[in-house]
Amino acid sequence: MTPRQTAALKKVDADSAARDGVNDVIDIGMLDDWIGFHLRMAQIASFQSFARHAQGIELSPGRFAALVLIDRNPGISQTALSRAIGSDKSTLTPVLDSLVKRGLVSRERTHNDRRLYELKLTDAGKNVMRAMHEHAQQHEKNLDTIVGPKDRALFLKILRKIAATRE
């Protein structure tokens, strides 16, 4: 076992023991060298941090991303939003339903094509965006501290390169 794998196991062991009181050591094997595994672990850590910063607003990173995109693109269709977020329409529909139900987004049929909906932020949605901006900025600062200013541009370049392969 490499020193890196040993360190990873100690981290997994310490985290799981702290959470559930079990002292099982988990051998993550080949996963330690898999980019996808570490992307997923990083995503989970990032989402948990985001949730801590957004406490009281109850907005997930995905819902926040939807609000940002709707704010920046008033009248965007569900199809275009789905492509921008990288999820299919069946996954996005419940997200939008919850944002509409909370009064943060309006969803109206377009005049040109009655099959399409235009999405816009409501005044309440704009207020949540303003409130979330500070929380999201603090979350990003924390991630910047972890990645480091020297590696930030390269890290984003690599993430964008991976995301660009999305079908």
Description:
The protein is mainly alpha-helical and 167 residues long. It folds into 2 domains: 1-30; 34-163, Winged helix-like DNA-binding domain superfamily/Winged helix DNA-binding domain (Arc Repressor Mutant, subunit A, Orthogonal Bundle), CATH 1.10.10.10. It is 66% helix and 7% strand. The protein contains 7 helices and 3 strands. It has a 3-stranded antiparallel beta sheet with strand order 1-3-2. It is globular and about 60 Å long. The two termini are 36 Å apart. The mean pLDDT is 87.
In short:
With 167 residues, the protein is mainly alpha-helical. Helix content is 66%, strand content 7%.
Descriptive labels:
3-stranded antiparallel sheet; 7 helices; 167 residues; 2 domains; 66% helix; 7% strand; DNA binding; 3 strands; DNA-binding transcription factor activity; transcription; mainly alpha; Arc Repressor Mutant, subunit A
